[in-house]
Amino acid sequence: MPASPQQRTTVDLKALSLQQLAEIKQQLDQEIEHLSESFQKLRQAQAKFEECIVTVKKTSDSANEGKDILVPLTSSLYIPGKTTEIDTFMVDVGTGYYVEKDSKSTILFFTNKVNTLKKNLIDLETVVQGKSQNLRAVEEILQEKMQANQANAPQ
Amino acid sequence: MSSIKESEANYVNPRGIPQAPFVEKVEDYVQSRDQVESILKSFQDMLQKYKFMEMSTLRREAGLKEKIPDIQKTLDMVKFLDASCNTDGELESITTSYELNDTLYAKAKITPRDTVYLWLGANVMLEYTNEEAIDLLSSKLKSAKDSLESCKEDLEFLRENITTVEVNTARVYNWDVQKRKEDREAAELK
């Protein structure tokens, strides 16, 4: 006998009508979709930060001072120039603030961000799993009820 | 269809969108109740097409709205480089920050020069002299602004026509309901 879901008030799933079960199923479906979307977005953000770390490491490598590069001035305008102050970077720390950091602190900053995201992702995953379990339980009971209805109807 | 003016029925807006005919007198379109369904269906089809065109025009407009500030920025940049190139006796270098990544900027030194590189998309980048670049960007900006204007015009025209078709559908439907009532009353009288 599937146990009633723990997060809600302990309503026995079997006591619910067919319609209520269908509603709960829909709600759970939506929640799982939302959470999966957020999960994807967090993953993407994490990948971007990891990319930043790699870029910083490559650029601040001392062999690159004074090297010729094509500098992007806008999304479609480039100008040849030379790298300068390769150990200085400006990081967008949010809410319109940019902080100048050297390569070590920049790498540290991004590593911290990646770790925070990792933790959030793990938490999110647990929540999604819990919800899918609930969804499966609801689906099971829904099936049982439908079969019971069909058995009763022909009589 | 005799009461519909010929010019109105065939009017096509500059981008080739046909004008929807307005149903002044339902009887001109529908002689009997059997035709009602096919007329309603054709109205629905028209509505679908108009709505589809509206969607694609909206998308085009949104894309243009994004591109225009970009082109404007690039144009201003090239003008600035051109100006600093021409006024300086000796060209002094400028230290600038450029975008390495979404949240990461790095420093670089540039010297104003008479050519710039423009990214044209589709993995194509060309070198232009400053004047050529300014000309190219100005004309791009102008055509983008013009397209935006015509998109706005189209959207208005489309919305008008969508309303017209919806009103038509309502009128034909109401006429049908009324006819049904009349027929039923006539049958009862017999």
From TrEMBL, chain A:
Pfam families given in the database record: Prefoldin
SUPFAM superfamilies xref list: Prefoldin (SSF46579)
A Gene Ontology molecular function term of the record: unfolded protein binding
Superkingdom of origin: Eukaryota
Gene Ontology biological-process annotations: protein folding; RNA polymerase I assembly; RNA polymerase II core complex assembly; RNA polymerase III assembly
InterPro entries, alphabetized: PFD_alpha_archaea, Prefoldin, Prefoldin_subunit_alpha
Full protein name: Prefoldin alpha subunit
Automatic annotation (TrEMBL), chain B:
Keywords: Chaperone, Coiled coil
Source domain of life: Eukaryota
Record SUPFAM superfamilies: Prefoldin
One GO CC annotation: cytoplasm
Record has 4Fe-4S as a keyword: no
Coiled-coil annotated residue ranges, if any: 134-168
Keyword Transmembrane among UniProt keywords: no
Family: Belongs to the prefoldin subunit alpha family.
Quaternary data: Heterohexamer of two PFD-alpha type and four PFD-beta type subunits.
Function field: Binds specifically to cytosolic chaperonin (c-CPN) and transfers target proteins to it. Binds to nascent polypeptide chain and promotes folding in an environment in which there are many competing pathways for nonnative proteins.
Protein's name according to its UniProt entry: Prefoldin subunit 3
Source organism of this protein record: Nadsonia fulvescens var. elongata DSM 6958
